[in-house]
Amino acid sequence: MKMTNKDYNEYVKQKSPNSPIWANMIKAFIVGGTICCIGQALLDGYKGLGVEEDIAATCTSVTLVFLGVLLTGLRVYDNIAKFAGAGTLVPITGFANSVASPALEFKSEGFITGMAAKMFVIAGPVIVYGISSSVVCGIILYLFGMV
User: Fold this and answer.
1) Distance of alpha carbon 53 from the chain centroid
2) Hey, where are the domains in the chain?
3) From the first residue on, what is the mean pLDDT of each consecutive set of 10 residues in the chain (147 residues)?
4) What whole-number distance in Å separates Cα of residue 84 and Cα of residue 80?
């Protein structure tokens, strides 16, 4: 049976479920915004305790990473992600989840060949391309700074 592109597109459209895009965007916005508000509250709380702003920002990052890993370990973060989708990809907690999830998944294979080897399966490319792009940007800024 030979189908034209138009026929194939119609077939796919009939078989594909409709995506509740607006509901998904609202959920992602609310959950992602809540995570960011928690981060801001932590920062304000640390500064309220008299911690210098630079140190308070570091403490906030560490706390958010800890909470992301803790909630991943308790299998709560997965449930939040199922509900909110992209809203849980807020960089710091999403990164913590992307490191902790494979570590938990492969722990049964042992510490070295399982958890340690597989921990950065998801986060590894993010680290590589993040560092690479920052080096390229740094070189560009350096070159334009010399002009």
Assistant:
1) 24
2) 19-146
3) 85 86 94 96 98 97 95 93 90 87 82 79 83 93 81
4) 6
